[in-house]
Write a structure and sequence with these properties.
With 446 residues, the protein is an alpha/beta fold. It folds into 2 domains: 202 residues, Periplasmic binding protein-like II (D-Maltodextrin-Binding Protein, domain 2); 123 residues, D-Maltodextrin-Binding Protein, domain 2 (3-Layer(aba) Sandwich). The chain is 40% helix and 13% strand. It has a 5-stranded mixed sheet with strand order 2-1-3-9-4, with helices on both faces. It has a 4-stranded mixed sheet with strand order 6-7-5-8. This is Sugar-binding protein.
Length: 446
């Protein structure tokens, strides 16, 4: 996970896995998450003991260390030592990265970049990074086309290689669905809302009629908004880079859908990744949540043993992405050649498959989907759900959406200001929309 991580991501990954939301929302399939994060030391470490030290700057928990990939690489390359510098939250990490780029110093040999920031890097700072498309051993065909293009500058330069992505599903409580008279088998549940997010709201309206006492259909209107808006080919920016979020069909229809859910009383009125949201998993307060792969470990952690076998995963109404990141190599790095080789190895399909197996970071390398670690993956906590099959199908259908430099600000402002004012403070949809757009206009050129 790596907006979770990505993560999420895995982050995208949020949580992504959205990493921006918590320390490593890239969660372990069968274990805990939110491991402690090291302080961001920045810069390239000095060589010692005859070995070259490569520094890797990340935010949250990318999982390379936890999955043993650093150790594996060091065994394959005895002359290399890897030092990871991890900052807990992307909102602290990314401004520091921009400052280091401006100063021309303090950069790690490899720098991770979250999906909502990659466009700004590609469009405004491409000259400061290695063109990964020209690196020996890098094959564009290994990656999903839309993921590859997210890191592409107007010149054609590719500033980073995709790590994880966050194809969306819907996690749901079988016991609560059963009590409310809804189907519980994942294929039948998916049919309830297939092809249209409005059908997800309709399912919620059916749920509410016989809802178990003290439960809501879904956790938050923000989750619904994010799930819906990410499934459109045009979101906040047009293909030519023009900011169009106010007139965007994706934003408007997703906003209206979120407001419909609030008005119908279908949400638990929670802010995602707050303590109250975490506690609601343990209490069984809501019956469904929009979930990328990186959120599975998060749910397992927060719902605990009492939730095992009660949760399952179904396909989302439409393919959409939430979270994910990239590995970039700054041009002025001390060990640029070695850093390029490490970044290429870490993002290769085989390593992405291993990372998914160990950390639930869903690969952006489509070549990994044919590997058994991904294609045949099931999750025991979620009733043996074939998560490899479910999320692979979603990943391949995600539209190519133009990204812009302020995507993250726009998304966060809609969810954390506009939607919450309506959901928690009782403001009207018009007041929530106006508050969000005013705030966005204060920080984004319109």
């Amino acid at each position: 996970m790596r907006t979770a991580r990505k993560r999420a991501h895995r982050t995208t990954g949020r949580a992504r896995r959205h990493r921006a939301a918590a320390c490593g929302l890239v969660a372990v399939l069968g274990a805990g998450l939110l491991a402690g994060c090291a302080e961001d030391g920045g810069g390239s470490s000095a060589d010692s003991g005859g070995r070259t030290t490569l520094s890797v700057g990340v935010f949250g928990v990318f999982g390379y260390k936890q999955a043993g990939l650093y150790d594996e690489y060091e065994k394959l390359h005895p002359d290399i030592r890897i030092k990871e510098n991890s900052t807990e939250r992307n909102e602290d990490y990314y401004p520091a990265l921009l400052n280091h780029l401006s100063a021309g110093s303090g950069l790690s040999d490899i720098q991770a970049v979250e999906v909502d920031n990659i466009s700004e890097i590609a469009q405004l700072h491409a000259d400061k990074f290695v063109d990964m498309a020209k690196v020996k051993g890098v094959d564009k065909a290994d990656w999903l086309g839309w993921k590859w293009n997210q890191a592409k500058a107007k010149s054609g330069q590719v500033v980073g290689l995709g790590t994880d992505i966050g194809p969306m599903g819907v996690c749901y409580r079988k016991d609560l669905f059963r009590k409310a008279g809804l189907p519980t088998e994942r294929e039948e549940v998916g049919k309830l809302w297939k092809g249209d997010w409005s059908k997800y709201v309709e399912a919620g309206e059916k749920y509410k009629k016989s809802a178990p006492k003290g439960t809501a259909f879904t956790d938050s209107a923000a989750g619904l908004f994010n799930g819906s808006v990410a499934g459109y080919p045009i979101k906040n920016y047009a293909a030519d880079g023009t900011l169009v979020y106010k007139k965007s069909r994706a934003v408007r229809e997703s906003w209206d859908l979120a407001m419909r859910a609030v008005d119908a009383g279908l949400t638990s009125k929670l802010k995602q990744f707050d303590k109250e949201w975490d506690q609601a998993y343990a209490n069984g307060a809501f019956a469904s949540v929009i979930c990328p792969p990186w959120m599975l470990g998060y749910i397992k952690e927060k719902a605990g043993d009492n939730g095992k076998g009660k949760w399952d995963v179904a396909a989302a109404p439409k393919p959409a992405n939430w979270g994910g990141s990239f590995l970039t190599v700054p041009r002025n790095g001390k060990h640029r050649e070695e850093a390029v080789e490490l970044a290429t190895w870490l993002t290769a399909p085989e390593q992405q498959a291993k990372l998914f197996r160990e950390q639930a970071s869903f690969p952006s390398a489509q070549a990994a989907y044919k590997l058994p670690e991904v294609g045949k993956a099931r999750h025991s906590y979620f009733g043996g759900a074939p998560i490899g099959k479910i999320f692979s199908a979603a990943a391949e259908g995600i539209p190519t959406t133009p990204l812009g430099p302020k995507d993250q600000i726009i998304k966060t402002t809609f969810t954390d200001i506009g939607i919450l004012q309506v959901e928690q403070q009782g403001k009207s949809p018009e007041e929530g929309w106006d508050a969000a757009t005013k705030k966005i206009d204060d920080v984004v050129d319109d």
